[in-house]
Amino acid sequence: MKFKSRPLVLLLGVALLFSCVENEKKNKTQKVADEDVLLSKVDTSEIKLSPVIPREITAKPPFTLESLQHDFDVFSWQSFIALNWPANPDGTPNTNLTIGQNQSSPTVWQMWKSSREVFLPNGAKPNAWGEVENIPLVCKNLTEEDLKKGVIKLSQVGKTPNVLDESGEPFQTGPLIDQNGQYTRYEILINESMFNYIVENKLYNQEGQEAFRKDADFPSSSTKTDSIGAIMVKAAWIKMGGKYDESKFHTTWALVYDNPEEQEGVKPACELVKVGLVGFHIGHKTEDEPQWVWSTFEHVDNAPTQGEEENKDFYNYYDPKSTYPVNEPPARPWNPATKFTTPSKIERVIPITEDAKKLNKEFQAALRQAFKGSVWANYELISTQWPTNAKSVTDPTGAPAPPFLANATLETYIQGEVRQTSSSCIACHNNATMTSGRFSDFTYLLQRAQKQKK
């Protein structure tokens, strides 16, 4: 009798499991529907989604520190929208589409040059703008079938998948481990204006920087000439699958490369992986802000904020049941090839301001209204750092506001409000130099230049 009852018990178990899965799907669907209803009620009358990158902020009087912060935050959102617009084959925004449509195509910024395309081994001159990237040798060992997964769509716009060759955060503060126990991956890209300045002045190798004999001075965006100056983007990505629902992320296929030059003991390896965007940082030099405007965005599910109620069922980098120390990097040795590392437990240290939260809701609502189910509504502005006194003769940083700014996925372990220790974009990048020792105009990228091969 017991033996005969086993199939029935098994069937009941399967039915229960199926019911749980279906209920979970219904709950997720209902939650999205509820969010759509809430966002549909948000006033978006003053929000315009445009593929045009703003050249400067639009300041509205009366001018106060708070009102200008709001204006810079609007500038950040406008930049985020324009940079993440679907791209044409030549990298310009596709004005036949709106942001959120055609998820299989790259966005405008994804068509830019990555740092590894600019600063080549032996100080070689980089390929011209628009030419396909030289991928690491080990990536070429992938089968044609593997490559087709990611390349077949991207080849239509003349670009291979981006190569994610960084797995550590600035100043060797440590890697960030996701809820699947995998390393977060990073990349830095620059726009054509910044790329042309580097190439024309031969700043892509050490000899060129030495011969330059002056400080770097990248072009600025200007409303007078309606020109776009130097812009750089840093992005953080996690591998899709496991605990992550890819429908919530902007995704792309990427060549995830274990770079032996990044950490001692790492062996070169390459894998074609679907990744989801979790962090997005923009540096934009404008005519009125020579210290650059620094805008930082994150996925809305990244981490809770210290002192605020946990309001998510799941966080990308936080598990309330985890006993791992908060905001602590994993123990060395660091190797992205490790199959599983204990997930990080991350909290945001500086809260998002109430005004920024309100602005986020307005833009998120506009994104959902423009394209139902838009993944871009799952991203939020953390803040914008800008110089309050850009022309100061005593302070080269221009007295930035807010004084501290950190992205939980890009400056995870240096969040806080301790001067000379905690993350501050302008204060930190004010120390950046070329390999020649001269000022590199608020970017550390020029330090990646290598010596020419003799």
UniProtKB/TrEMBL annotation:
Domain of life: Bacteria
Protein name (database record): Cytochrome C
Organism from which the protein derives: Pseudotenacibaculum haliotis
Species lineage: Bacteria, Pseudomonadati, Bacteroidota, Flavobacteriia, Flavobacteriales
